[in-house]
Amino acid sequence: MSKPPVPRQVLVVEDDARVRGALREIFVNDGYQCLVATNGREGLDAFQMERPPLTLTDIRMPVMDGLDFLKRARAIDSDAAIIVITGVGDVGTAIESLKSGAYDFIVKPVNVEGVLIAAERALERRQLLMERREYHTLLERRVAEATRDLTAALNELDDTYRSTIEALGSALDTRDIGTHAHSRRVVGYSLALARAHGLPESQLRDLEHGVLLHDIGKIGIPDGILLKPGPLAPEEWKIMRTHPDLGRRLVEPIPFLRGAVPIVYHHHERWDGTGYPSGLRGETIPLGARIFAAADAFDAMTFDRPYSVAISFEAARREIERCSGTHFDPAVVETFLKLPLELLETIRNGPASPGQPATKNPLTREH
Ligand SMILES: [Fe+2]
């Protein structure tokens, strides 16, 4: 059995008993449930209690006038449909009431048809406004949900990219210097150094990619040269020194890695201009590459390698300081020397990638 329809409710605020009675009769005869009040104050109490969807209010009333009632009622419920009843010729009041949020006005003397049409129209308009707002809310919620889903998908994609690059960095280390944890540590030192040097967070991702992939060009260096136990012949050095350019050509076509190119290409430049491939000098060397150079050298010195024994953190810091202005950017060195030893130790001892014990390739050297 379906429920009987809820009667539409209307509040009539009118001090004139005859008009009030006539309005009440009009509404009741048309199936409305009608509440009445004799002034604005009473009307506001009834409004607050019942929250009627429709209200008709006279303007000139004792205690609280219709305009005051209108403003207060709209402040309580901005969806309230309120129609004001004005006297003939009182256009100014009608306009003011519309400005204050009245839906409509009717002019005395009231007639049945005019009242019911105005009431119907006001209720329809109220319904439309409420539906439109609900629709907007629904749309906003859907947009928020879609944005959340998209953000989650992008984050997942980001994680996938990151894992892929990390795996590639580890693979490169393992083939070259024989320990996959080298890239993890150099990323750690580089990021700490970059932050302390004032690089914005937005540039750290490119730095990280560049550090992880700096030697990717070595993929194109034959094993006979890359893994040669003895010293390289001049011709072999020439080939070895093509790896920054090989790396640049590998990375450049990949849009999300483009920011890593300056580090990949310039990671063997030196502050005094004696590096390669371009022989850049000073601040013409990209800052990421200058930061990487110090971080990489620090790790190379403080971690046992097949061709060299690790020295202490303190000794490595002194060595980096000694090479300030020749090999390294003096400003970067200054920042590096201020990094707390505990931070460097934490980075050094950080977790290795799961399932990949550090192994060493006894045949490799620093290039
Ligand atoms: Fe390199």
Give, in spatial order, the strands making up the sheet with the most strands: 2-1-3-4-5
Integer average pLDDT: 87
Ligands (ions, cofactors included): fe (ii) ion
Q: What's the quaternary structure here?
A: single chain
Low-confidence stretches: 352-366
Q: What's the CATH topology name of the largest domain? A: Hypothetical protein af1432
- What's the level 1 CATH class of the largest domain? Mainly Alpha
Question: What is the makeup of the main sheet?
Answer: 5 strands, parallel
When the domains are counted, the total is 2
Rg result: 39 Å
- The helix/strand order is EHEHEHEHEHHHHHHHHHHH
Measure the end-to-end span. Answer: 87 Å
The percentage of residues in β strands lies in: 5-15%
- What's the name of the CATH homologous superfamily of the largest domain? Hypothetical protein af1432
What structural category characterises the helix and strand content? Answer: alpha/beta
Count of separate DSSP helical elements: 15
How many DSSP-defined strands? 5
CATH architectural designation of the largest domain: Orthogonal Bundle
Shape: rod-shaped
Helical fraction equals 55-70%
Q: Quick summary of this structure?
A:
With 367 residues, the protein is an alpha/beta fold.
Write structural notes for this entry.
With 367 residues, this protein is α/β, with parallel strands linked by helices. The chain has 2 domains: 126 residues, Rossmann fold; 172 residues, Hypothetical protein af1432, CATH 1.10.3210.10. The chain is 56% helix and 7% strand. Strands 2-1-3-4-5 form a 5-stranded parallel β-sheet, sandwiched between helices. The longest helix has 65 residues. The N and C termini lie far apart (87 Å). The C terminus is likely disordered. The chain binds fe (ii) ion (FE2). Fe (ii) ion binds next to loops.
